[in-house]
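#help-structures
NK: newbie question, is this the right format to request a structure? protein is Response regulator transcription factor
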Amino acid sequence: MVTPLSILLVEDDAEIGEFISLYLANHDARTTVVPNGAEMDAAFKSGSFDLLILDLNLPGEDGLSICRRVRSERPIPIIILTSKGEDIDKILGLEMGADDYIVKPFNSRELLARIRAVLRRSDNHHAPDDGALRQAYLFSGWRVDILSRQVVAPCGMRVAMTGAEFDLLHALCENPNRVLTREQLINMTHGPTSGPFERSIDVLISRLRQKIEADAKKPLLIQTVRSEGYIFSAQVTRA
């Protein structure tokens, strides 16, 4: 028997909340709908969730602030669902830690596809193929474990990664010392259903540098190749 997904939706429009909840219920997902950040916090205290869907225009604490706060507290995948469709809004959402960004009005099938894509990239729902078992990448004292999707720093501490951040690091480890264009990285990390745009990769690169570089402003591992893309300048081995 398949265990239903548990989704937390922060949406103050009751009609949209009910529509999403009913639609996802037909696709093995149980949705808890709350109208603001305070009730979201209460929901997190009373239960666990596989995914957070977050509106930006909310009463009280705004969605971007909520996204940044949740990302700093827990590794749950986050999808922003909002009427704000400008590129700058998407960039800000990704910078705050969202895994994907959907603009209203939206197609319900697209929403479901995006949910499934984000969950495939997340720790708890990623199912590696047999060839990935016991496989890890090692570079500069770091360990990237493909099966558990864990990243361990040279000091031995685990570094939390979102699904998109891990997939980007995985792609870089598989292609060391090779210039990769933004389009190539988009295909490796987002896939065709995630509505990719080039700046999303720049945001992910920035987030990843903050986590693995000694000085994110002077990166030695993930270097920019002007007018071309990025190169992972590390000696990578497999374990």
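mod (FA): yep, format's fine, and the tokens are attached above. Residues 198-212 form the longest helix (15 residues).
NK: thank you!
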